[in-house]
Write a structure and sequence with these properties.
The protein has 716 residues and is α/β, with parallel strands linked by helices. It has 27 helices and 10 strands. The strands form 2 sheets. A 6-stranded mixed beta sheet has the order 6-5-7-8-10-9, sandwiched between helices. Strands 1-2-3-4 form a 4-stranded antiparallel beta sheet, sandwiched between helices. A hairpin with a 4-residue loop joins strand 1 and strand 2.
Length: 716
């Protein structure tokens, strides 16, 4: 039983983290789909747990483990090839509703099998409560081992599909090996076969990965495909043109003279004589070549993806001069960079539909940038919003949000209308110059720009266009912040305008009144329902399951977001954070299971959970960046330990005797709460309410659950 429960946690959490990596990569890198994918996963696990408890003994644990391990690589391949299902062009974003559907469907098969495994393994023990607690304990230990294995192997030793195959080998060898010892011929043979198969998986890694990419990007030559600790990269070639895809979204193309000029030359129009330019992003796709035509200019590029630099150099795409500084922008700015060192800073953060990119456009990060910018320096952001002929409602909202964010830090902010609207900011009044002066400065440059020159800018910066843009933005705009990342949801709404169903869904999430009243009212109603009636004791156990799942998964999603936005990465760390969470569940379950039946577990569990949330609310902004990963692992561990203890308390309420019962029902209720927390927090509540408000609401929910428990205890 213990081995089966361990393997359940190993294959479920290992598969979950691998699928999350592939799904987020295929769906443009947006962390919003972590929430929707986890919702699909947890709903599927809940359905499987309920079905397994409803029809016990139909499928044995060993058979379910084999099926789960075989399904995993198929689901990983489906996640990699997901864009083919909708038929979008290479690098084009999948619309919201199909993307949500894909994230649900890809997670469902393994989720159902994992859920069915829980009551199947728990059924190997006589007493329902003891069996459920023991499975929960060893599942958490196996989950931590899986998270650690994925962190160490995925993207460093093997690709994600190859790690999925390696999990198949390990789980099947352990599940089918029975109790064979290494001292027996059977045991030694099983280990030797497993090692041989793992060696074969390693040998097939590169061909398998390239075959999947070739199918995904039909019509292009796949020059390179690999993971970095931050994203999945693909470098494609067709008809002499290079395309760099980051998480299935086009990051850059070569040649693209217009993009290179837009990213570099406008700052020289307002900061003539600039010598030192900081570029947050990649310069190999045109900026470095343009900078070489300006002999007095030095461009320092900052991008953490060292493996991408090596791949570009291998194909002759690296720019001359120094390679990028391989460091996260936040760490670079907060590190040894001198105050006032740069004359200009160019931001190329990527698609703001990801929290990682949007975090570089918040006043918090812009304030750090101002420290390294000299007094008359200029910051440039080239946006993806077209205001050349018409300023749409969504474009106006987004540009107003960006301008408000920059205006919180810089005294002067201007916009250049055009097919790619530019935002420029400075603390000095460098923009108060006639257009003739701007044109003259650009025409005097040693290079001969094709797009950013007086001929084109005369029309682009005409009073008609600039005044129309200003009129569209008038009276709008609140800054996007780390605590409340409104920019991401606004950008998703901008993309959704082309699809009526997507626009309707995004419009619903933008209505705070319904969510602000409906969700708390439903939760209060649930607690009242659990505390009422003659069967309040067992019924309130189901409520505690639900609350434990909802609060813990909401806290986990918040931790993912805060870590991503403040540290700048999540792609590789997510497995470690999930592993710490699952280890906390195991430790909390182990501790609570050792306590006497009559000892109260509800109050210590709820108090610890509320205290962890309160500490996280108070201290997160004060933690040193070097300790941020450890801090989040500790927070998730403690919150999960309290959840594990609460799980035991709920189990003892729901299963007071050894009578036969649906051993998957309580687990399914916990997963139902978890799925709700996973879906609502990153996709709806975070952009609408912000981190502090959600944490306060979670603390209130925990307190309300405690009040309900006190009422039930008095009545029973």
């Amino acid at each position: 039983m213990n081995r089966s429960a361990f393997l359940l946690g190993f294959v479920a959490t290992g598969g979950q983290t691998l699928l999350l990596r592939e799904l987020v990569s295929s769906l443009g890198g947006s962390e919003l789909f972590i929430g929707s994918a986890l919702f699909g996963w947890l709903a599927a696990v809940a359905a499987g747990a309920w079905a397994g408890g409803r029809w016990p003994g139909r499928l044995r644990a060993a058979l379910l483990l084999v099926l789960a391990s075989l399904v995993l690589p198929l689901c990983v391949a489906a996640a990699r090839l997901a864009p083919l299902a909708y038929g979008v062009a290479v690098g084009e974003a999948i619309p919201l509703v199909p993307a949500l559907t894909i994230s649900f469907l890809v997670m469902a098969p393994l989720g159902v099998l994992s859920g069915w495994l829980f009551p199947a393994v728990a059924g190997e023990h006589g007493a329902p409560a003891d069996g459920i607690v023991r499975v929960y304990l060893f599942e958490g230990i196996g989950a931590f081992a899986a998270g650690l294995a994925v962190v160490l192997a995925a993207g460093t030793v093997l690709s994600t599909p190859a790690v999925a195959l390696a999990l198949v080998v390990i789980v099947m060898a352990a599940a089918l090996g029975g109790g064979a010892s290494m001292r027996t011929v059977r045991g030694a043979g099983a280990v030797l076969a497993a090692v041989s198969l793992l060696a074969a998986v390693a040998a097939l890694d590169h061909p398998l990965n390239r075959a999947l990419e070739a199918a995904k990007y039909a019509g292009y030559a796949v020059a390179a495909s690999f993971d970095t600790p931050y994203s999945h990269q693909a470098l494609l070639l067709r008809d002499g043109a290079w395309v760099l895809l980051t998480d299935n979204a086009v990051e850059a193309t070569r040649p693209d003279a217009a993009a290179a000029e837009s990213h570099l030359l406008p700052v020289l129009a307002y900061r003539p004589g600039a010598r030192e330019v900081l570029f947050i992003g990649r310069t190999e796709f045109g900026v470095s070549a343009l900078a070489r035509q300006l002999p007095d200019l030095t461009v320092t590029s900052v991008d953490p993806r060292a493996r991408l630099t090596a791949a570009l150099a291998e194909h002759g795409l690296a720019g001359e001069g120094d390679p990028p500084v391989h460091e996260l922008p936040r760490r670079f700015i907060a590190g040894g960079t001198g105050r006032g060192e740069f004359d200009a800073i160019v931001l190329d953060p990527g698609d703001p539909s990801t929290y990682r990119a949007a975090g570089l456009l918040t006043p918090q990060f812009l304030g750090q940038l101002r420290r390294v910018l000299n007094d008359s320096g200029v910051v440039l952001l080239a946006t993806a919003y077209d205001t050349d002929r018409f300023v749409g409602r969504r474009e106006a909202e987004l540009l107003a949000t960006l301008r408000a964010s920059f205006a919180q830090v810089f005294a002067h902010v201007i916009l250049w209308p055009g097919e790619q609207t530019l935002l420029l900011a400075s603390d000095a009044a460098v923009f108060d110059v006639p257009l003739d002066t701007v044109f003259a400065r650009l025409d005097s440059l040693p290079c001969r720009p094709l797009w950013v020159n007086s001929s084109y800018l005369f029309d682009r910066l005409s009073p008609l266009r600039t005044e129309r843009l200003e009129a569209a933005l008038a009276g709008q705009g609140a800054p996007t912040t780390i605590d409340r990342p409104a920019l991401t949801l606004e950008h998703i709404g901008f993309r959704a305008e082309r699809h009526p169903v997507d626009a309707a869904i995004v419009g619903l999430t933008g209505s705070p009144a319904w969510w602000a009243v409906g969700v708390p009212a439903a939760l209060v109603g649930l607690i009242v329902w659990g505390a009422a009636g003659r069967r309040a004791g067992r019924r309130y156990g189901l409520v505690l399951y639900f609350v434990a799942g909802a609060v813990s998964l909401a806290a986990e999603q918040l931790a993912f977001y805060v870590y991503q936005s403040r540290a700048g990465s999540l792609y590789s760390e997510i497995a470690l954070l999930i592993g710490a969470f699952m280890l906390g569940l195991a430790v909390g379950t182990w501790y609570a299971a050792r306590q006497p039946q009559q000892r109260g577990l509800i109050w210590p569990s709820l108090s610890t959970l509320a205290l962890a949330l309160a500490i996280y609310l108070t201290l997160t902004g004060r933690i040193d960046p070097s300790a941020f990963l450890l801090y989040h692992m500790l927070f998730l561990f403690v919150a999960a330990a309290a959840t594990g203890s609460l799980f035991v308390a709920a189990t003892r309420r729901c299963y007071p005797s050894a009578a036969e019962a649906n051993r998957g029902l309580g687990y399914a209720c916990e997963l139902a709460g978890s799925s709700l927390g996973a879906l609502l927090v990153p996709t709806v509540l975070l952009p609408l309410l912000g981190v502090p408000a959600i944490l306060i609401g979670l603390i209130g929910l925990v307190g309300l659950a405690g009040v309900g428990a006190a009422i039930v205890d008095r009545r029973t």
